[in-house]
Each structure stands twice: as structure tokens, then as C-alpha cells.
Amino acid sequence: MRRGRSGPADPAGRYGLLLLLLISTYLLAAFSAGRLVERLSIALFAAVLLLALRNSPLSRRWRLQLGGAALAGSMAAGAAAVTSPGTGTGIAEIWNGLMLLLTATFIVRRVLARPTVTVQSIYGALSAYLIIGLMFATFYAAIEHLGGTPFFAHAQPGNTQTFQYFSFTTLTTLGYGDFTAAGNGGRAVAVIEALVGQVFLATLVARLVAAFRGDERDGPGSR
């Protein structure tokens, strides 16, 4: 994988808009509260998947079918969350997590398949990393809503803000310790997230960095 020179834009691998949408989604959840944010996140995550599909090498037929299924499933998940705030919300969170998992898969495969490393490759890697953090946050929320018991120990509040905060501190292995999972299931998922975060940094990001360094060593100035 080598860094590309200036040339025609690759419309099938542009992730700037996707990265901007992900950052906006995170900030919206971080500075807002209430059920409206949870409902809106379903639509935003569906939009994230649709943008990833636009960048995927799949045929137009498959993109349309997957996009239609994502929209239909998101509408059903939103209806379930409205009619049943407990179990329905848990099901909606699982749906969000599955959409984000599929999105991250599309992005990582596309970035790794590129023969060159470009700015769009970096945007794609950053987008996938953010998606992983958001995905695990939805799984933590699902555990609380479906389990019927608080997810966090010491009666800490479980909401969109705290789930995302806990998820990203786990993904980056910061481990502040102000929020900890109370149950064995939540702890197990947190361990998996920490491992995924480390593997992601050690494989995809390291490969991109190595490609950039290799390009610099092969440049005219190195001779």
C-alpha cells in the first residue's frame, strides 16, 4: 500500500463527509439529552451506513438493496423504541450496533484494498475507529435496557452520554475508572472492545503509517 500522488479523485473512496457526520453525531449526543437524541441516533447511524455503502465497491443493485433494508430496519427499530421504552429501546440499540458493525467492515475492507495511501484513507481509518466506539456504546446501552439492571456500578447514570464516554475511554484504554461495568456481561464486552481498539491501532493504522514512511524513503530526496 503506497501513498498516491495527485490525480483524479476516487469517488468510491471519499470519507471526509462520513467523518464529519460521525463527529457531529458524537457531539450531538454529548451535549444533548433526552429520548429525542436516542431516536435521532437511529436515523444518523442509518445515514452513516448509507454513506459507507456509497463508498463500497458493491454493485449498484446490492447498494440499493442494503440501503433499503437499512432504512426499513431503522424505521422498525424506531417504532419499537417508541412503543416499548425498555425492551424496544434495547432492540433498537442492537440494531444500531449491527448497522455500525457493517459500516466499519465496509470501510476497513475498502481502505485496505486501496493500492495507495491518500488523505481519504486516513479519513476512512478515523471514521472506522469512531464507528467502533459508537458501536460498543450501543451494545452497552442494549445490555442495560434488556437486562433490567443498571449497567454501571455504584448507581452511576446510564444514558447515551455516559455509554459513549465509557466506550471511548475503554477503546483507547485510558481507563479513568469513574465508570465501571457492574455485571460480568458488561465487563466481558468492555474487554473485547479494549482488545479491538489495540488490534485496530496495531494493524490498520500501523499499516497506513508504514506506507507513508515507505513512500518518503523511496522519494527523490532519499537517493
Structure commentary:
The chain is mostly helical and 223 residues long. It has one domain (12-217): Helix Hairpins (Orthogonal Bundle). The chain is 73% helix and 2% strand. It contains 7 helices and 2 strands. The chain has a two-stranded parallel ribbon with strand order 1-2.
- Mean pLDDT, to the nearest integer, reads 84
Elements, N to C (H/E): EHHHHEHHH
How would you sum up the global shape? globular
- Total domain count: 1
The CATH architecture classification is: Orthogonal Bundle
> Number of helical runs?
7
What fold name stands as the CATH topology? Helix Hairpins
Please mark out the parts with pLDDT under 50 across 5 or more consecutive residues, or reply none: 2-12
Give the tags.
single chain, 223 residues, 2 strands, 73% helix, mainly alpha, Helix Hairpins, two-stranded parallel ribbon
Blueprint (SSEs and pairs):
Blueprint: E1 2-3, H1 16-30, H2 35-55, H3 60-83, H4 87-113, E2 116-117, H5 119-147, H6 160-171, H7 184-217
Parallel strand pairs: 1-2
